[in-house]
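Renewal narrative, Specific Aim 1. Our central claim is that a sequence can be written position by position from structural information alone. The example that follows is taken directly from our test logs and has not been curated for this report. It begins with the structure tokens describing the chain, in the order in which they were read.
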């Protein structure tokens, strides 16, 4: 490993993104006909199409995955709630975050390695499904309504702890996470710890 840090930020995946739809104000690449590209619509108010999310993780897998020691995932992993015709739901917010956890597993999961005996190679000393630490934090769009996070334990800390990030938050940090949404991970043993502070 090369002590390489990769931040993953503001993905905002949008399952309702429609390629070649309108980028005009009020359309959000969800309807109409227009300039929305297959991989996104830069300089518009549109969020990221799943084609861009998939291509990004494929590129990371091909070009970076073997040179990364840990990932800092800074949140905003659900689409914006800006289209009044398709209001966000709690299930969508959690589902989009869960989808990204699965993308991380596809790239950094042990199940993608085989030591010849059907087990992940080089797993000694690492618990959980990931070869490297993945350290997420809440973005303001990872809860509903956005920007409002009440003191925990609350339904968001419970849902992320027991479902979405259950394989990410260290066992010793789970009580603190449920109370406030924060935790820390020793990403390079005896050298470097990363604190995930809930700034909400």
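The sequence written for that structure reads:
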């Amino acid at each position: 490993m090369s002590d390489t840090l990769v931040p993953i930020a503001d993905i905002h995946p949008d399952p309702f993104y429609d390629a070649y739809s309108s980028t005009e104000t009020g359309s959000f690449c969800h309807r109409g006909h227009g300039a929305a590209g297959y991989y996104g619509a830069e300089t518009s108010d549109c969020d990221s199409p799943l084609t861009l999310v998939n291509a990004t993780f494929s590129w990371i897998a091909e070009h970076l995955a073997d040179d990364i020691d840990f990932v800092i995932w800074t949140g905003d992993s659900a689409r914006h709630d800006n289209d009044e015709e398709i209001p966000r739901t709690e299930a969508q917010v959690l589902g989009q975050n869960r989808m990204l956890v699965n993308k991380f597993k596809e790239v950094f999961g042990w199940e993608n390695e085989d030591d010849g005996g059907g087990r992940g190679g080089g797993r000694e000393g690492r618990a959980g499904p990931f070869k490297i630490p993945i350290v997420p934090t809440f973005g303001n769009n990872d809860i509903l309504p956005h920007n409002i996070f009440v003191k925990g334990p609350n339904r968001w800390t419970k849902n992320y702890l027991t479902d979405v990030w259950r394989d990410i938050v260290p066992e010793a940090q789970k009580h603190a996470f449920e109370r406030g949404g924060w935790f820390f991970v020793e990403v390079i043993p005896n050298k470097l710890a990363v604190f995930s502070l809930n700034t909400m």
